């Protein structure tokens, strides 16, 4: 008989005698605080005085709910077929973006770096970029290379356009290979700004460079769809289902669902799916563009409106019955179609489910963290089901987002107690959760520490979700996505009820 493998979880392993002894020996050299000092400091960090100090800080950010600009640029690049994201700057940045995206999607993330070091910082990164382009053509054979920058290249002011032209003149990259680029410094903006910059750059480059701008009848009746910085691959499937129910032909501009949900078929390829490069110039002739995010793709929308002269419908993340109704009506108006019966039926089923769960959700106080579009979608959903948003923290919202969020909250009695903390971080949220408790917190995995300190259950929605599996494979948009969110929230509430129930209240039926 073979020995059974005994793989011990590290939490169990660290409780073993060997590790306990090691830890004690290590402590002797660390001069740690005494247990009473730890307790005292923890208590102070939960006081009103500490909260006031926390909210008065102006030059320090602690645990912001955002990632770097080029991370968004990598996601945008992976939305196009056979496209290799190329990061001009330090190699460590590329490692961070790849691991960050990998930990969320549980997929390998192809991206290369020009690996600038000290000499690049002094003399400029031209050689790094030229050699990098040559290497990636030789090794990975992409059909497009999408170049974005990290901070080092931005601080020294590398000229991407001139560098790429030099690479072409030196013959390391053919003129047939599109190389769109975006400046994505992380000392401003966030992952959504970087996504926007790269998407706009890819669309404008492919459109401007295309020799064939003639469109067929079919192109003229198609619809363009943008999902934006989309951490849910399930949302792509959901919008495709909706558009197919309408019987519409469409082009998703930036479809990274294939690259972030590739099959394990025995052989790995660098490239899975994505928008066809030849579809982009044709997309300029489409009936119109529907965007399921507005704050994450502001510049792209401006470009499509201005240069392609198209009708645009842009909405924040359509979560909930009302938001989905508006989305479907917009699609119907834009294309002159009827809302399909099967979607109306699906709506009815979700309304029924909402009614079933309503009594457990009504009046629940919630804290929300996320990107602007997701937050607006979640606020709308909470108000719709009678949940009361109390603390809303957004690190990367602008004034327009703040105004829209406040108007949305003011439209319902359930929004009366809410405050939107725009430009704030998760350390602010910790103080809020402790000083003014809520029933539930909703946000990414990063919120788990503040939620634990405040003893509030965390519902993981958004980006990144590192510590739960497969949640990104389910949709959170449309009627089906609303049902998925409802199920996630109500079952967390019911789990809490069971955990806190006395013996006589540990009910079989809820
Ligand atoms: S902040 Fe700048 S240097 Fe740091 S990881 Fe982000 S892009 Fe790289």
From TrEMBL:
MF annotations from Gene Ontology: ATP binding; iron-sulfur cluster binding; metal ion binding; nitrogenase activity
SUPFAM superfamilies in the record: Helical backbone' metal receptor (SSF53807)
Keyword Cytoplasm applies: no
Top EC group: oxidoreductase
UniProt domain Nitrogenase/oxidoreductase component: residue ranges: 68-493
Keywords linked to the UniProt accession: ATP-binding, Iron, Iron-sulfur, Metal-binding, Nitrogen fixation, Nucleotide-binding, Oxidoreductase
GO cellular component, one term: molybdenum-iron nitrogenase complex
Cofactor, how bound (note): Binds 1 [8Fe-7S] cluster per heterodimer.
Subunit-level organization: Tetramer of two alpha and two beta chains. Forms complex with the iron protein (nitrogenase component 2).
Main function: This molybdenum-iron protein is part of the nitrogenase complex that catalyzes the key enzymatic reactions in nitrogen fixation.
Protein name (record): Nitrogenase molybdenum-iron protein beta chain
Protein source organism: Paenibacillus anaericanus
Gene symbol of the encoding locus: nifK
